[in-house]
TrEMBL record:
PROSITE patterns referenced in this protein's UniProt entry, alphabetically: ABC_TM1
GO biological process, one term: transmembrane transport
Topological type in the membrane: Multi-pass membrane protein
Entry GO terms, CC: plasma membrane
Taxon lineage: Bacteria, Bacillati, Actinomycetota, Actinomycetes, Geodermatophilales
Family that this chain belongs to: Belongs to the binding-protein-dependent transport system permease family.
Segments forming domain ABC transmembrane type-1: 77-261
InterPro entries reported for this sequence: MetI-like (IPR000515), MetI-like_sf (IPR035906)
Organism: Modestobacter caceresii
Subcellular compartments: Cell membrane
Residue ranges of the TM segments: 27-48, 83-106, 118-139, 145-165, 186-219, 239-260
Name of the protein in its database record: ABC transporter permease
Length: 277
């Protein structure tokens, strides 16, 4: 091939294959929600399901908007959020404290392993008769269910985090004669913190579920009680509207937990890689 046969590429020539731009996950999620709402609207209007028991999505939203214009709705929301926040706070303090203690002491971890595995699968709703018997109806019974359900999510994660500490790092800390509190602060806590944040995220979601469930079964107040009242009144669109609102509340809780996790673990390699990707 001669030099004259070599032709320079045209300026601004496009490559043969262009990578198709990918939509952000948030946009895809929004499109999915819109499609799901459209499906909920079409199913009863086309007669696939009975509108008497499953009204169109627009009627659910209309009933929710009407309810949101009343003080009763926001009072119920505040009661649910209050039970969720107090219960989650108690579970956090107890779960983190006991998790660090149990995970740090090998004998204690072995001693409590069977008890934890026995109590952890017990559903919180099974404690409803006991809660009513001991505490009666109201916030205290609701807190018992919320704390019990979310406590195990946090405790197990903290114990796993403490066990994940590098044995070489443990021996190094002992060789430098670090005290117990120094080891917890500079060795155990940084290693366990990602597990703690996972427990917080899981516990927050479970706590909200039980805060609503307590009202549904009649031992507490809040959004669950409003759903039960709407059902007994045959206000079907309002029932679905309140269910949608509790779902939105759960999304807010999950997003807030993820934001807290990212900010708390901004130094962690997994979070930096996720943000960088």
């Amino acid at each position: 091939m001669s030099a004259t046969d070599v032709r320079p590429a045209r300026a601004g020539a496009e490559p043969a294959r262009r990578r198709r731009p990918e939509l952000p996950s948030s946009v895809l999620g929004l499109v999915g929600l819109v499609a799901f709402a459209a499906l909920l609207e079409l199913l009863p209007r086309t007669g696939i399901v009975s509108a008497e028991y499953f009204p169109p999505f627009s009627e659910m939203v209309r009933a929710l908007v009407e309810a949101a214009g009343t003080d009763r709705f926001w009072a119920a929301t505040a009661e649910t959020v209050q039970a969720w926040g107090i219960g989650l706070g108690i579970a956090l303090v107890a779960g983190i404290g006991l998790g660090l203690l149990i995970g740090s002491v090998e004998v204690l971890r072995r001693f409590t392993a069977s008890t934890i595995e026995f109590l952890r699968p017990v559903p919180s709703v099974a404690l409803i008769p006991l809660a009513v018997l001991l505490l009666g109806l109201g916030l205290q019974s609701t807190l018992l269910l919320v704390v019990y359900a979310s406590f195990w999510q946090i405790l197990i994660q903290v114990i796993y985090g403490v066990q994940d500490v590098d044995p070489v790092a443990r021996e190094t800390a002992r060789s430098y004669h670090l005290g117990r509190w120094a080891r917890v602060r500079y060795l155990i806590w940084p290693t366990a913190l990602p597990y703690v944040m996972t427990g917080v995220r899981l516990g927050a979601a479970v706590a909200l579920i039980l805060a609503v469930t307590a009202g549904l079964v009649g031992i507490g107040t809040g959004l669950g009680a409003e759903i039960a009242l709407a059902q007994s009144s045959n206000a079907v669109p309002l029932v679905y509207g309140l269910v949608i609102f509790t779902g939105l509340l759960g999304v807010v809780v999950n997003l807030a937990a993820r934001v807290l996790e990212r900010r708390t673990l901004a130094w962690h390699s997994s979070v930096r890689a996720d943000v960088g990707g």
